[in-house]
Amino acid sequence: MKTLYVTDLDGTLMRDDKIISKESVAILNRLLAQDIFLTYATARSLRSASEITKNISFKLPVIIRNGTILANPQSKENIEISMFGEELQHLRQAFTDITIPGFATSYFGSNEAKLYLTGRMNEGFQDYLQNHSTDRRIHMVDTEDKLYEGKTCYFTFIAPKNELQPLYERVKHIKEINCIFQQDKYRPEYWLEICPGNATKATAIQKVKQLCGCQKVIVFGDSANDIPMFHMADEAYATKNAIEELKEIATGIIEDNNTDAVAKWLTAHI
């Protein structure tokens, strides 16, 4: 029976210092050389995830933006992107009077852009901009209409929980979208990420599963955005540092992300 293994990155494969240890890199590369079916699923962009995983020889399509994008890890090209349809108009209406800073991720042909509106800023968003000052995808726009130019596939808002919660309550009932509302792993702010309704880690994993002809799926994760893939997997393992909601539906609990838990589990079971 062919098994597809899928791991989250932040808080799961990655340590708290935002790297994948040399030990994990060596183990994963050894297993990939044996042609096991292994990939990752992350909320990160392809650019960000590729930098984190640059020393690992992933071959299968990788799952980006919580399942919004399937990408080739070797060519760094997108294979498939889920775009917003008519639901975008409902989101625009929900966003009309907000002042919370965030990005609209859009595509202009094959070029990705992360658009944000001038004048909307807070400490968490400013920190993100500073940490991504060399990212040429990020563009400031001067009118709200320009946020929706191109083909939009993703929204990201960053703010303290008490400021972001009302927006989450407003949009979570809109049909044909998925919302992920959770705390940043490295800062006190919360993130609200909104993607098309057909885009989850679970739906993207199903596509990769069919592509490689696997019959079984085993996943590893730690956060709220991993819940859909935990529900669909045959086996699901939460790291010790995972949220309680994820642990409650896990097949088992493995060591924490700072002790190479995923790599150790794979070594012991493959």
Radius of gyration: 18 Å
Coarse morphology: globular
Count the beta strands.
14
Unreliable stretches covering 5 or more consecutive residues: none
- Taken in chain order, the helices and strands follow as EHHEHEEEHEEHEEHEEHEHEHEH
Number of domains: 2
- CATH superfamily grouping of the largest domain: HAD superfamily/HAD-like
Average pLDDT metric: 96
- Strand residue content: 25-35%
> Mind telling me the CATH class of the largest domain?
Alpha Beta
Structural class: alpha/beta
The major β-sheet equals: 6 strands, mixed
CATH-derived topology of the largest domain: Rossmann fold
CATH architecture of the largest domain: 3-Layer(aba) Sandwich
Query: Counting H and I runs of at least 4 residues, what is the number of helices?
Result: 10
Instruction: Estimate percent helicity.
Output: 25-40%
Strand order of the largest sheet: 8-7-6-9-11-10
User: What is the terminal-to-terminal distance?
Assistant: 13 Å
